[in-house]
Design goal:
The protein folds into two domains: about 240 residues, Aspartate Aminotransferase, domain 2 (3-Layer(aba) Sandwich), CATH 3.40.640.10; about 120 residues, Aspartate Aminotransferase, domain 1, CATH 3.90.1150. It contains 13 helices and 15 strands. A seven-stranded mixed beta sheet has the order 2-8-7-6-5-3-4, sandwiched between helices. A four-stranded antiparallel beta sheet has the order 9-10-15-12. Strand 5, helix 6 and strand 6 form a beta-alpha-beta unit. The structure holds pyridoxal-5'-phosphate.
Length: about 375
């Protein structure tokens, strides 16, 4: 049986175009971009071309693009830098209850250093309201960090409104756009963001690559010290092939976004419609404001991990909504935040689709999941 991959929010396969663009830099074009001879200039030019391409994909200028080694690194850099830059103004940061751990754990680190963090509540669909944000801003607020779209339930936040408020109130605004980039149109100007994080492997780019957009005029403290790479702000020899691959994949994703999203949306609608026929099941996240590829559910009286393990036995890759830490299954902070009742909190399942999925795969999954749920609930086994 061939594998059915429905965990694209976790990672994606590498695009063929991205691989082709990377190959020369993994083989014959191995010059160091920091050297002055022409062999090194080939690598340097490739990095700068990639920077231009990434900038144009998100409505930025090339000098506003910094390459990193992950979305996590971009989030860490943005948040810690804002804290350091603005420390004389205050130590209050606003975020939401449903951020990725790359943001939450960075904020917990800052809390230990004396910063105060306000976590905005989300509604049952996972959204905050602009009014809540307005009310939370104080004279000592130095940063608002709110994700563009959530990785577990796919909810899209009202980012442009948040950006307007942040700008109006003179507070720096960072958004973790790791799940959104390549899947939703991103325009840093209309979003009014000061910093925005991207990760290559969420849109068919290579793993271990990322981008931090930093608005012109905002000079962040250096992330690493050493050489002059990334205009001295992130020292370390560039991952030339990774950078080239990220840019190629992002360009491809942006060019094909409309067509891909139409196909993906049709498949996820069919999936949602079919799965919601299972008794005591519900869709999690916002019905309207959601990433096209994320179909996330909660089932009463079953463990999400058990569903995932049984799907795995059938060659289907999916993920549950909870993280497994030190042997105890902690329910997901996102599902807790949207107020899922206790009986469904552990029964989360996320199926995240990409353009490589097919309608046939959807039908197979729709046949298997009801059987799995019935079996786990102690009904007839198949
Ligand atoms: C919303 C969000 N932020 C950050 C990250 C981390 O990105 P990376 O895997 O590139 O470190 C992820 C990865 O799942 C994510 O979904």
């Amino acid at each position: 049986m061939s594998q059915i991959y429905m965990d694209n929010a976790s990672t994606t396969s590498l695009s063929k175009n991205a691989l082709e663009a990377m190959m020369p830099f993994l083989t014959k074009e191995y010059g160091n971009p920091s050297t002055v001879y022409s062999f090194g200039r080939i690598s340097k030019n490739a990095v700068e071309k990639a920077r231009e391409n990434v900038a144009s994909a998100i409505g930025a200028m090339p000098q506003e693009i910094f390459f990193t080694a992950s979305g996590t690194e971009a989030d860490n850099w943005a948040i810690k830098s804002a804290a350091e830059l603005e420390a004389s103004k205050g130590k209050h940061i606003i975020t939401t209850e449903i951020e990725h751990h790359a943001v939450i754990h960075t904020l917990q680190y800052l809390k230990r250093k004396g910063y105060e963090i306000t976590y905005l509540n989300v509604d049952k669909n996972g959204r905050i309201s602009p009014e809540q944000l307005h009310a939370a801003i104080r004279p000592d607020t130095i940063l608002i960090t709110i994700m563009t779209a959530n990785n577990e339930i796919g909810t899209i936040m009202p980012i442009a409104e948040i950006g307007c408020i942040a700008r109006e109130r003179g507070v720096l605004f960072h958004t973790d756009a790791v799940q959104a980039a390549g899947h939703l149109p991103i325009d840093v100007t209309s979003m009014k963001v000061d910093m925005l994080s991207v990760s290559g492997h969420k849109f068919k780019g290579p793993k271990g690559t990322g981008v931090l957009y930093v608005r012109k005029g905002l000079k962040l403290p250096s992330n690493t010290h050493g050489g002059g790479q990334e205009r001295g702000q992130r020292a370390g020899t560039e991952n030339v092939a990774g950078i080239v691959g990220l840019a190629a994949a992002l360009n491809e994703a942006v060019s094909n976004m409309q067509e891909n999203n139409m196909k993906i949306k049709n498949m996820s609608n069919r999936l949602i419609e079919g799965i919601l026929k299972i008794p005591d099941s519900q869709l999690t996240g916002d019905m309207v404001n959601r990433l096209p590829g994320i179909a996330s559910f909660a089932f009463q009286g079953v463990e999400g991990e058990s569903i995932v393990l049984l799907l795995d036995q059938m060659g289907i890759c999916a993920s549950a909504g909870s993280a497994c830490s030190s042997g105890s299954l902690e329910p997901s902070h996102v599902l807790k935040a949207i107020g899922l009742p206790h009986v469904t909190l552990r029964g989360a399942l996320r199926l995240s689709l990409g353009e490589d999925n097919s309608e046939e795969e959807i039908e197979i999954v729709l046949e298997k999941i009801p059987q799995i749920i019935a079996r786990l609930r102690g009904g007839p086994s198949y």
